[in-house]
Amino acid sequence: MDGGRFAGVREGWGFFRRRRGVVGRLAAWSVLEAGQTLLAGYAPARALDAGFLAHRPLTGLGWLGVAAVAVPAGAYGTGRVYRNVAALAEPLRDALVRRVVARGVRRAEAAAVSRLTHQVEIARDTFAGLVLLARSFVFTAVGALTGLLLLDPLLLVVVVPPLAVGLALFAATLRPMARRQEAFLTADEAIAAELALVSGGLRDVTAAGAEDRVAAGAGALIDAEYRAARRLAWWSVVRAAAPVAGGRLPVVLLLALAPWLTGRGVTPGALVGALTYLTQSLQPALQTLTHGLGTGGSRLTVVLRRLLRGADASPRPAPVPPGGPPPGAPAVELRGVTFGYGPGAEPVVRGLDLTVPHGGHLAVVGPSGVGKSTVTALIAGVLVADAGRIRVCGAPPGPPAHRVLIPQEAYVFTGTVRDNLGYLREDPVADDEARAAAEAVGAARLIDRLGGLDAPLDPAALAAGERQLIALARAFLSPAPVVLLDEATCHLDPAAEARAERAFAARPGGTLIVVAHRIASARRAGRVLVMDGPHTDCGTHQELLDRSARYRDLVGAWDGRADAEAGAEEEAPEAATGTERVGRSHPAGPL
Ligand SMILES: Nc1ncnc2c1ncn2[C@@H]1O[C@H](COP(=O)(O)OP(=O)(O)OP(=O)(O)O)[C@@H](O)[C@H]1O
Predict the structure, then answer these.
(1) Mutate to test the pocket of ligand 1, among 341, 487, 532 (most ligand atoms within 8 A of CB)
(2) Which atom of ligand 1 is nearest to the CA of 584?
(3) CA angle 296, 21, 419 (to 5 degrees)
(4) Ligand 1 neighbour 372 (Cβ under 6 A)
(5) pLDDT tens across 128-138, in order?
(6) What are the tens digits of pLDDT across the range 331-355?
(7) pLDDT at position 414
(8) What separation in Å is there between the alpha carbon of 368 and the centre of ligand 1?
(9) 366 and 591 in contact (C-beta within 8 Å)?
(10) Is the CB of 373 under 6 A from ligand 1?
(11) Where in the sequence of the chain do the CATH 1.20.1560.10 domains occur?
(12) Closest residue to atom 17 of ligand 1, CA basis
């Protein structure tokens, strides 16, 4: 069993543990059903032995009446059971929706969200069905076995061994069948994807004379699905043996061993009662369990694995080579990029060329509204360029594995501090890693004050600067090599901002692009991109001071503020966890 599966089992166990109350109520109402099952065999047995065979018909009728009264009582219990199943299934759906929507939003894929939320509905319905089935089997079995025990313990000796064999057989098929089912679905999806591709390009296939090659490719996929279907069918046969062994074999044994049983004091009524338990309760319950839990269990396993591990049909982001972009490819590259907010609108970015090397640190500066955020959104793949070419880590922008964009208004959600920090990670964040990241960006003291990594985090109770610190620590922990800070430190004081920016600049294999709103921020960067309407210039701080009038203007406007702030940067290494800066970052100057 791999770590992921362990985590899944732990998570599933935790889900039920946190809802002990609902599970307890579910069990309590199920007891009514179990009582009905118990009486379904016990009452006819007593009616026969103590009533009709003993020439006491009224007693016999009385016992049958008891069995009849148990039916509405059991039905009432079943009704209450449904309510409690809903109380289990709905939170599961909510939890799954939160995860898949977050991932879809992270990938900026509306289609993925819609597809995943549909899968969540399937998971919720299947889960509710499985809870009902499994619970019904357990309580029916408990009722029937208790009844057999009360009638005569010898009956258990005949019934229990084949029943146990049937259940063991069923349990043994669960995991292999889930795997085969997933393999079959994957093969089926591969054929669907191939056919969609081929049917859209039939004309090209014919024009290029590639019919044989395309047919061979599709044929290989069909063969793969055929093989997957055969393996699945083989396991279905093994599974079909489970209800035969567990449900039908005990009936045969009971009939065959009837003389032996009656010779040891088992009454005719007890035999009839035992047969009733087997044919009316255990056999149908086992049949439903193997069929329902088999099919539903495999489906739920497959859907959950896809939902929780992100293996949905949408294309996975290209993996990022550890340590950043492939050798030779810059971290970020823009060639002739033009973008406007609408077909008739004046472009905000026009013919922009920009190269940020692996490990580089770039500050983007310019007057308010000139297009700084637009450039970061284009690099992040949140906006799509009208013309030109953008590459992040050598690939088209978009995959969150390549970049993380932190905007001015930091997004923090209700959950634990750890949930918030690990939000951009597929794998769990270790304590020391989280602490190191928090320490690096200056969020450690805040996290201590909140009560540590597992403390609950209430977004409304945090100041804007505190939310930014959490978002910064989260970005620091993300595996993305390119970090885009779009005024992501604007609510921090200069010292806290400097600390965070230095931490990102020093992040191993990391590339940093900062929309700067302070002179110090631009000075810290190796290179500065000055945006001035359609004109841009890129160089070092000193080069731009020498050749860019716009940059000199900006620096002039910043200078007064910078002088006042410079002292603070030296004095307060982690000063500003709660500091609020007012509104947009550059209210007075041209920035
Ligand atoms: N969603 C949008 N739809 C239409 N126009 C937009 C949109 N977002 C931004 N703009 C416009 O595009 C221009 C560039 O905006 P952008 O936010 O990129 O500038 P900025 O340099 O980051 O500004 P600031 O420093 O104030 O954040 C502005 O004129 C802005 O009004």
Answers:
(1) 341
(2) 26
(3) 75
(4) yes
(5) 888 888 888 99
(6) 999 999 998 887 777 889 999 999 9
(7) 86
(8) 8
(9) yes
(10) yes
(11) 3-309
(12) 373
Residue range 3-309 in CATH 2.40.50.140: no
Atom of ligand 1 nearest to the CA of 371: 18
* Atom 16 in ligand 1: residue holding the nearest Cα: 371
Q: Are strands 361-365 and 527-532 parallel, antiparallel or unpaired?
A: parallel
Q: Measured between alpha carbons, how far is 400 from 297 in angstroms, rounded to an integer?
A: 32
Class of domain 332-339+347-571: alpha beta
Q: How far apart, in whole angstroms, are the C-alpha atoms of residue 511 and residue 351?
A: 23
CA distance 416 to 277: 50
Render pLDDT for 190-242 as a digit per residue (tens, 0 to 9): 787 777 767 666 666 676 666 776 787 788 888 888 998 898 888 888 888 88
Separation CA 518–CA 363 (nearest Å): 10
Supply the DSSP symbol for 244.
I
Residue range 319-338: average pLDDT? 70
Task: Specify the ligand 1 atom closest to the Cα of 408.
Answer: 27
**Binding site membership of 364 for ligand 1 (Cβ less than 6 Å):** no
ipTM: 0.97
Atom 29 of ligand 1: nearest residue by CA position: 369
Query: What burial letters (b/e) apply to 328-346, b meaning 16+ CB within 10 Å?
Result: ebbbbbbeebbbbeeeeee
Q: Give SS3 for 353.
A: strand
Domain with CATH 3.40.50.300 in the chain: 332-339+347-571
